[in-house]
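Priority: low. Protein: ABM domain-containing protein. Input follows.
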Amino acid sequence: MYARVTVLEIDTTRVSVDAALETYLEKALPELRKQNGYEGIYMLSTPEGRGLVMTLWSTAEAADVSSPVGFYADVLSEFVTVFKAPPGRECYQVRFADVPAPTGA
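Result:
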């Protein structure tokens, strides 16, 4: 499994963290789920707007879906007015994961 990690900062003077998340879930997540090799996502944020998005992929090639052209570029274009600066991104091989099972809703 591979993880594509994007580090970002939302411009909270323009949009709230909650509104940015809602837009992502409505516009980007449905398309992300259609990508070959997609295996999940974690989104972390602070109230000040700093955030980390980690998408999980079956192979290194699948993780390339978030390269500077194509799907990733399309998603970024939707959020260009949301970020304080262009986000940074890296790809990692997931060497170990210990994810707790979900508990009641």
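The chain has a mean pLDDT of 82. The first strand starts at residue 2 and ends at 9.
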